[in-house]
Amino acid sequence: MSLKNTIKLLRFPFSFFLMPVFLLALSQAKLINWKGTILSFLILHLFIYPASNGYNSFMDKDEGSIGGLKHPPKPTQQLFYGSLILDSTGLLLSFLISPVFSVCVLLYILASRAYSYKGIRLKKYPYLGFLTVVIFQGGFSYLMAYIAVTHIEISHIITTELVALIACSTLIAGVYPLTQVYQHEEDIKHGDITISYKLGFRGTFIFSAIQFIITNILFFIYFNSAQKLNNFIILQLFFIPVAIYFVSWIVKVWNNPCKADFEHTMKMNLTASVCMNGCFIILSILNHFL
Fold this sequence. Notes:
- The protein contains eleven helices and no strands.
- The chain starts with a helix and ends with a helix.
- The longest helix has 31 residues, at 195-225.
- It has 290 residues and is mostly helical.
């Protein structure tokens, strides 16, 4: 049972929610190194991201719902060692891609640990914790993926790619507060004051809506600069179901704050992830195979 609970708390399926950033980088790469692409995809989604989930669960010892789990089991020491093994394995495998990618993976691990570790606990600071997640799950993850997929040097990343990096961060800036909106009581119990708690229920949705609008503007600038406006049009088509669900959820929360709950959050995450992953897979096919 202990092993089963450990695997459950590593939340491997949750990597699906973090996949759009990698797939965007893949879709926009000018040349693809397939060894680096496949290996980095496995490293991030099967080792690094689950290890981060596990370590966070071990430190938090949540009794309420967390991302992907409505009723999380109690973590054990096995979860702590499991997260270390996954991180160590992912870091070692990253050297097969490049030293630069390895440094990026190490920095991601350190940021993730600093976010959750009781001695530092960036999570308890609403703005610093928010910026850490936005940077590392957004633009930094895009940078990691782009380096692995293309083997390009960081110094060669041109201005248009910097716009894509920023767009990824503003996208996460919109999504991240929504993942906290149902956890206010649980977070306060741990002494964590999140950005969503600071904003309140309605403020969280207004803030996220603004971030999504900024993200869309940045994607227009990016695709226009890259002379890929057809990619932007396709992106808009996939945004439609996300926008419809988001607006309908806002209306529900406006009338009844209790609707800012686990079920609606997970449906929002799933809708957005399915649409964005599907969009960037199609863009990858169009840009590299057709």
